[in-house]
């Protein structure tokens, strides 16, 4: 059972809370997994998972990661739906990392951060080069 933290406050009127709950329910149903099965896989209680699905509770990032693992989906997908992360532009490298089953979620996140750092550095260098050429 997941402990209820201060982040797990009731927010039934919060659209992102309801959206993530509905998304989790849709993913669970698509995977043909019962509420009880997902709760067991994710290590949270049935009532708590039910409250998340109905938009009554806002899960923490840790709980979302556990649910993602139970659903066998990327934690990043749930983080974006919950508003924890911004949606990133499509990238074949990112897509390949997210579907790779040979690395865990933490490794995926680390690789994505490194990849984004390299992309941002290259973009900054390209801007500096372009500015130097116009001078």
């Amino acid at each position: 059972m997941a402990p209820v933290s201060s982040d797990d406050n009731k927010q039934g009127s919060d659209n992102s809370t309801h959206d993530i709950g509905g998304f989790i329910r849709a993913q669970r149903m698509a995977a043909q997994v019962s509420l009880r099965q997902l709760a067991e896989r994710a290590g949270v209680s049935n009532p708590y998972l039910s409250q998340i699905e109905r938009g009554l509770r806002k899960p923490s990032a840790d709980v979302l990661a556990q649910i993602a693992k139970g659903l066998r989906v990327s934690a990043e997908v749930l983080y974006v739906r919950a508003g924890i992360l911004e949606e990133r532009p499509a990238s074949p490298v990112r897509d390949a990392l997210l579907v790779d089953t040979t690395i865990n979620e933490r490794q995926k996140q680390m690789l994505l951060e490194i990849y984004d750092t390299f992309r941002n550095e290259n973009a900054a260098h390209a801007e500096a080069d372009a500015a130097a050429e116009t001078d």
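Confidence is low (pLDDT under 50) at residues 1-14. DSSP finds seven helices and no strands in the chain.
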